[in-house]
Amino acid sequence: MANFNIDADKNLTYDAIVIGSGISGGWAAKELCEAGLKTLVLERGRIVEHVVDYPTMTLDPWEHELRGGLTPEQKAKHPKGGRSGFIGAMNEHFHANDLENPYTEVKPFLWVRAHQMGGRSLLWGKQTYRWSDLDFEANAKDGHGVDWPIRYKDLESWYTHVEKFAGISGEALGLPQLPDSHFLPPMELNCVEKHVKERIEKDFKGRNMIIGRVAHLTEPLNGRGKCQYRNRCDRGCPYGAYFSSNAVTLPAAHATGNLTIRPFSIVQSVVYDEKKGKASGVRIIDAETSEEIVYTAKIVFVNASTLSTTQILLNSTSNRFPNGMGNDSGELGHNLMDHTYRVGAMGTVDGFEDQYYKGRRPNGIYIPRYVNLKDGPQSDNFVRGFGFQGGGGRAGWGAGSNQEDFGGNFKDGLMKPGPWEFFITGFSECLPYHENQVYLNKEVLDKWGQPTLSIDAEWKANELALNDQARKDAKEMLERAGLKDIMEFDNKHEMGFGIHEMGTARMGRDPKTSVLNGTNQVHGCANVFVTDGACMTSSSCVNPSLTYMALTARAANHAVSELKKMNL
Amino acid sequence: MNRRDALKKTALAFGAAAGTPTLLSLLQACAQTDRVTWTPQFLNEDQARFISAFVDFLLPKTETPGGLDVKADVFIDLMYSKTYDEAAQKQVVADIEKFNADCKAKFGKVFAELSQEDKTACFKDQEANSPKFAPKVWGTGVGPQEPVGFYRSLKSTVLWAYFSSEEIGKNVLSYDPIPGEFRGCMPLSEVGNTWSL
């Protein structure tokens, strides 16, 4: 599968250009290439070839000189991304350099970026859930934001389409608020998770605790191997067991012979042709030589990741679009959303001291939303809802740091697993607020002299009320499940910590209030498509990546059909 | 410990799997109690002696290797050298000096030279007065966190240096780099020690 065609400069004209190679860009490339379109993928960073470019994928701690520790030079590159707590020596090479790519926090906002082929698809959490009409109808029903131009039935077959190829493991339960995917066999809960599940489902009518639905293979698929339970996903998986662009969509696109991927290509703007009334191509800056090049194509997919996509559109000015491409409504850059992060409870579980488990499962439990459902209890304090992720396991030697003990017995005691611990942490839906926004900052330029983003967004009363309820509910559920030493927590993280940025170029029914139409085309520039998180009209409380995949496949197939009809 | 005992214990702990280099280093470690037998990259000799003594007292050799056997002290010096920036390096040196100065004030000697009883008194005092780490969920702490201070921070570093070593990770804890499957429930007796990875 090796040897991507990177010789883009031989030919400056393509049928399609895809900006970005992460989760949604990879899907756009696959669908367009398989439809026969000569497709150029523009990637800001370097090529990361599946397996070949995963240098740390099998390293044990002692095989790395600093055992996973970062040097001061490495740390200095991540003053912002480092706040996530996720950057270590085994994955540092997959995180963007904050110094070369500054952004301005008007209010605190964590923006985690991954600038290489595959983008954040190499690093993501892989939780994959379908959205439902509870989500697509929410704006219309309670009046926040604008109505989604689509409903679940518009996406249903596209969910199935992407799931069959991506490989999603999970258990079918028929929950209306969390539709079942096309599933590979589910992963197993451990003893304590099974115990807590029984107690919660018995004590709380309408609540379910399920194994996480994840983009990990539990059976081989299309030549990819199944999960080996090493839990070293963020280094790149040698088996291709989790979904990434590198292991799944880009190799499929490459296999058609229609894919060219150009690394080190920083997109400056989408070029608008005033005479033809549509986009003619994309202007890039070569990250290594600073050379400017314009590539032309019939259609352009902008999949640079939510905020970068909007940054490109804001920077794509013309006589027709003086305030940014597709910004007739003034909504471009607005309605930024994320999921709240790190609010919940934890505790210990007695009675399973003689039990253990085998394998490091890259997955946990999920408690789907149960508040403000159609036929369930309604809250007076907030609209929308929250779900929980979490999991259980036995404490390891790290617990020794807090034990008031030392010496030989202390050391030997740490060789045995400690108490069973269990936690749940909530993810609350964020409403779309016009004033939560990003805009171009021409005072702060990046390494290549381009304007950067200022981010001005914050949680408001509804999100804080949801979080408050999530914390109380978490504690109550763990109490009723019989846990001990329960600690509730609310870290009050700023926006961005959920790493689920959504909105800023929303879909809608009315060009006066939205940036994209119901098939993800830019209002006023129909041959430009946006199908990453920027397109989202609301945020649900459910992880969004699977929905990006489905929206992308749907829009790409629409684009191909419109091209055939000569409509683009 | 005399050499004969060391040989016996080593044989017990490692069985036939014990390689010659490990055995040699164990014997060498026994012979050295009052001077540093390795060349620190960052610490000076007195500071290195403090780290070695701290490691040895926190995690002494028993049926399983001690902290010095797996060179936890050598790794900590390397970590200070290569992962700490200048400000953090200055801080850790100051912390070591202060720890020793406090020992001198209270017990009359620096930590490495204290009797077992005085070392015990010193650690008990530190345990009682050092704040705890807040629990972590997915890489970030939850709940309020006050600074844990030098003692608990170093204790945590020593545990990391010890348990992330090849000897402990591969031969003492239960090592299974490629489990291949997930079993949610199984008797602990079938696994034995905690999983190393």
UniProtKB/TrEMBL annotation, chain A:
It comes from the Bacteria. The keyword Flavoprotein applies. Its cofactor is FAD. InterPro entries: FAD/NAD-bd_sf, GMC_OxRdtase_N, GMC_OxRtase_C, P2Ox-like. Belongs to the GMC oxidoreductase family. Residues 432-551 form the Glucose-methanol-choline oxidoreductase C-terminal domain. Residues 105-340 form the Glucose-methanol-choline oxidoreductase N-terminal domain. SUPFAM superfamilies: FAD-linked reductases, C-terminal domain (SSF54373), FAD/NAD(P)-binding domain (SSF51905). This is GMC family oxidoreductase. Keywords: FAD, Flavoprotein, Oxidoreductase. The keyword Oxidoreductase applies. GO terms for molecular function: flavin adenine dinucleotide binding; oxidoreductase activity, acting on CH-OH group of donors. It holds the Pfam family GMC_oxred_C.
From TrEMBL, chain B:
Residues 1-31 form the signal peptide. It holds the Pfam family Gluconate_2-dh3. Keywords: Signal. The keyword Signal applies. This is Gluconate 2-dehydrogenase subunit 3 family protein. The lineage of its organism: Bacteria, Pseudomonadati, Bacteroidota, Cytophagia, Cytophagales.
